[in-house]
Design goal:
181 residues; endopeptidase fold (from Nostoc punctiforme); 1 helix
């Protein structure tokens, strides 16, 4: 769909740094379907299609947490394995997977996985940049031409389960507890 590739926001240029978290930059992508080619690390690891949401999340985990996912390909929706239970190990991503709701409270640097929607069959991923009281803040790349790189989502504990109050959130991924952050 060509309309998803057009940059409707003349205030930003594709590839412009619009935010940063822990010294990892977030780039403006223009239309959500825009792609500027593949980003690979110096050692050949596939980081993803430039300025898409997956590229930011994988680049963040690679640069900040020194983490390479065994399955280096796929769309955002592919990060969540529907066959796993809350707290199971996701071997494709080499991360612990939590459902929404989960018995474990969200924490900074967790990856949030959003389900596909009517206008986005690929899903979406973001990183938790802050956990504070009854909300989390996420940082994201490619939220759309007028979207914000930061968004707050309400979080509450009901029946000993932590719920992120957004119907599209499938769950989260996080590094194993014994790995350094």
């Amino acid at each position: 769909m060509v309309i998803k590739k057009i940059n409707w926001n003349s205030k930003h240029e594709v590839g412009e740094v619009v935010d940063s978290f822990n010294n990892v930059d977030v780039y403006y992508n223009g239309g959500v379907g825009n792609s500027q080619g593949r980003n690979s690390s110096a050692d050949g690891y596939n980081i993803g299609m430039k300025y898409q949401c997956v590229e930011f999340v994988k680049r963040y985990y690679y640069e900040r947490l020194k983490h390479k996912m065994p399955d280096a390909y796929g769309n955002a929706i592919d990060f969540y394995d529907t066959k796993l239970k809350d707290g199971d190990f996701n071997t494709r991503r080499d991360l612990i997977q939590y459902s929404n709701p989960s018995k474990i409270r969200p924490k900074e640097e967790d990856i949030i996985i959003f389900n596909k929607s009517l206008f986005n069959s690929y899903g979406h991923v973001a990183i938790i940049s802050k956990v504070e009281g009854d909300f989390i803040e996420i940082i994201q790349q490619n939220p759309g031409p007028f979207g914000s790189s930061r968004e707050k989502i309400k979080v509450e504990c009901k029946n000993n389960l932590w719920l992120l109050d957004n119907d599209r959130i499938l769950g989260r991924l996080t590094k194993k507890q014994n790995e350094s952050r």
